[in-house]
Amino acid sequence: GKKIGILTSGGDAQGMNATVRAVVRTAVSLGARVFAIYEGYQGMVDGGAGIRELVWEDVGSILHKGGTMIGTFRSKDFREYDGRKRAAVNLLANGIDRLIVIGGDGSLSGLDQFRGEWTQILTELVAEGKITQEVADAHPSLMFAGLVGSIDNDLVGTDMTIGADSALHRIVDAIDALGSTAASHQRCFVVEVMGRHCGYLALMSAIAGGCDYVLIPENPPEEGWEHQLCAALKRGRAAGRRDSMVVVAEGACDRSGKPITSAYVRQAIEDILGEEARVTILGHVQRGGAPSAYDRWASTWLGYEAVMEVLTAEPGTTGPVIGFRGNRVSRVPLIEAVAKTRKVPELIAAGDFAAAMELRGGSFTE
Ligand code: F6P
Questions:
Q1: Which of 101, 229, 261, 263 has its CA 20 to 30 A from that of 216?
Q2: What ipTM does the predicted assembly reach?
Q3: 3-class SS of residue 144
Q4: For a substitution probing ligand 1, which of 196, 197, 262, 286 has the most ligand atoms within 8 Å of its CB?
Q5: Of 243, 266, 64, 247, which is closest to residue 171 (Cα–Cα)?
Q6: DSSP E strands: which ranges in the chain?
Q7: CB contact set of 42 (below 8 Å; sequence gap of 6+)
Q8: Tens of pLDDT along 283-293?
Q9: Annotated catalytic, 82?
Q10: DSSP state at residue 61
Q11: Active-site hit among 105, 112, 152, 165
Q12: Is the pLDDT of residue 366 over 50?
């Protein structure tokens, strides 16, 4: 039967387990076999116990759990050609030539590179006597499907990444909790949220939490923004608002590209309003804990689609990123999605904020 390898790579995200479960159970139902590659690409480079078969029962009781039961890692070895060669040997030792990878843009671009080198790697391995010609002939190409697992929701071309909804819930819960203490003291809180170069979590949590002000990388504020922010806080207070809240994306910058830190925002509030403020950096609590209902069902659906993809893929063609567009499952070319994702910080650095927002907003090839 067909053999599929599955791995999770990069930062973990809530819903990764739901995907692993769906992949195993879909594949097993269709008569295929699934091998977990532990600790991301590193398990593939190291081989041995890093690659183990998962059967139906192995993925019981993980649907509702955060993190990833098969581990994740930011593998340096896999970034080297030699590491990828070792990975090919270990895959072939297990008869695997189909991969499902759940990770961020970095993890997915490494995957496409590996696919592109597959034929050359196999030719070299045969010449070096590490695999037989028969094995090479039986696995002429690597087929894959990429799924985006990241709380950041930063991949251009897909509406939601696995984990983003759960992280957003966690942030909004924290904002609600901070709100009650803020209101008691009539105090302002500056909340710093994750997202790397992407302002999705900050923007959406500020809206969902009814916050006063938000700073995101894609829309750097005009010079003098500190006064604008304080004026907004003052207006709120005058209107009877007791809990003031400012959300700062960890990647927020001003128009010159200088990072805007939560500590800086707090100090600006103190200097301008003569009022004490407090900073809360939410940190990894955003990535931990149980996946939301959305992340459970959406990840299950994506896992199913990924199996269908790798079982029916045309050998020799590049694999897609599978995600959602307009509440439908969509397949987008991996290279294009990664290139556009990387373009966003470049556009921001070049001062073309409108184009950055346009890309983030999602006008992908419709
Ligand atoms: O990409 C997910 C993410 O949580 C980002 O939001 C954050 O910038 C980064 O990972 C933190 O990385 P680490 O877990 O290595 O500290």
A1: 101
A2: 0.97
A3: strand
A4: 196
A5: 247
A6: 3-8, 33-37, 51-54, 98-103, 143-148, 188-193, 213-215, 244-249, 277-281, 320-325, 328-333
A7: 50, 73, 75, 77, 78
A8: 999 999 999 99
A9: no
A10: T
A11: 152
A12: no
